[in-house]
């Protein structure tokens, strides 16, 4: 067995720590993704951006870690065979982030559709109120003519 360098060991522990921190935030902010009704603990939403930053720092360090592992092996086939799970993780992070962006976009589309419906209702109500004013005027004139 090949002895790991101090840098490689340190990087492994840093990556593990960052993965744990990100998972804690993920559970707090997206409990539905893990089929939970609500988060088991509360973290204010103002901190959500920091957990996103942790994810991208984790991604960068993971890429750097893979680079070091490749340089140590210097053989693509062996590298893929030994570190396929880490490569998969590096590929999945941006891929799954795209789904998160799509979810935000879907929520934005729903909000815009609801706003559009609200504006339609407002416009129709405004138009209907004009008709009621005309009807009220006609009824008033008819009532006055009837009295005369």
Main sheet, how many strands, which sense, barrel? none
Structurally, the number of domains stands at: 1
By DSSP, the count of extended strands is: 0
Oligomer: single chain
Shape verdict: elongated
Q: What is the string of SSEs from the N terminus onward?
A: HHH
Roughly what fraction of the amino acids lie in strands?
under 5%
Q: How does this structure look, described?
A:
This protein is mainly α and 148 residues long. It has one domain. The protein is built from three helices and no strands. It has helices at 6-29, 48-73, 76-147. Helix 1 packs antiparallel against helix 2 (48-73) and helix 2 (48-73) runs antiparallel to helix 3 (76-147). The longest helix is centred in the C-terminal third of the chain and has 72 residues, at 76-147. The protein is elongated and about 105 Å long.
Which descriptors apply to this entry?
0% strand
Blueprint (SSEs and pairs):
Elements: H1 6-29, H2 48-73, H3 76-147
Helix pairs in contact: 1-2, 2-3
Quick summary of this structure?
This protein is mostly helical.
């Amino acid at each position: 067995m090949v002895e790991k360098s101090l840098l490689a060991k340190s990087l492994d522990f840093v990556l593990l720590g960052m993965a744990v921190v990100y998972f804690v935030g993920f559970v707090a902010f997206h409990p539905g993704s893990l089929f939970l009704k609500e988060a088991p603990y509360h973290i204010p939403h103002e901190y959500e951006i920091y957990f996103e930053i942790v994810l991208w720092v984790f991604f960068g360090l993971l890429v750097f870690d893979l680079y070091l592992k490749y340089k140590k092996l210097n053989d693509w086939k062996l590298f893929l065979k030994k570190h396929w799970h880490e490569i998969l993780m590096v590929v999945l992070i941006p891929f799954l982030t795209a789904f998160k962006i799509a979810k935000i976009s879907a929520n934005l589309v729903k909000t815009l559709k609801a706003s559009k419906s609200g504006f339609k209702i407002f416009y129709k109500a405004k138009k209907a109120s004009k008709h009621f004013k005309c009807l009220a005027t006609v009824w008033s004139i008819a009532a006055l003519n009837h009295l005369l």
